[in-house]
Amino acid sequence: QVQLVESGGGSVQAGGSLRLSCVGFGITFAGRTLGWFRQPPGKERELVASIHWIGSNTSYTDSVKGRFTISRDDAKNTVYLQMNSLKPDDTAVYYCHAEKIGRPGVWGQGTPVDVSS
Fold this sequence. Notes:
Elements: E1 3-7, E2 10-13, E3 18-25, E4 33-39, E5 46-51, E6 58-60, E7 68-73, E8 78-83, E9 92-100, E10 103-107, E11 111-116
Parallel strand pairs: 2-11
Antiparallel strand pairs: 1-3, 3-8, 4-5, 4-9, 5-6, 7-8, 9-10, 9-11
């Protein structure tokens, strides 16, 4: 059974940090582009950061550039999202996603992040 399991979410004050992890089971991260999405309360899900399987090239949405860092460890089948200088606007449920050309994308169940001012 294919499953992505996120962890590391929680409550933090503005300016604090969290590190999210996502482990894949029944799926190999090598050869896949991995991403972190988030869905704030009452809003659409948006892409926060992605990391390509070739050269580990990364991209970020403008609002998190310079604060968030995505990384991957294919040996551990894990993708991370280091989040620093958190703001209340970062409050959301965070989801990891794995995709490969020609295959359906796979979603995790989400981990909530709550940033208080």
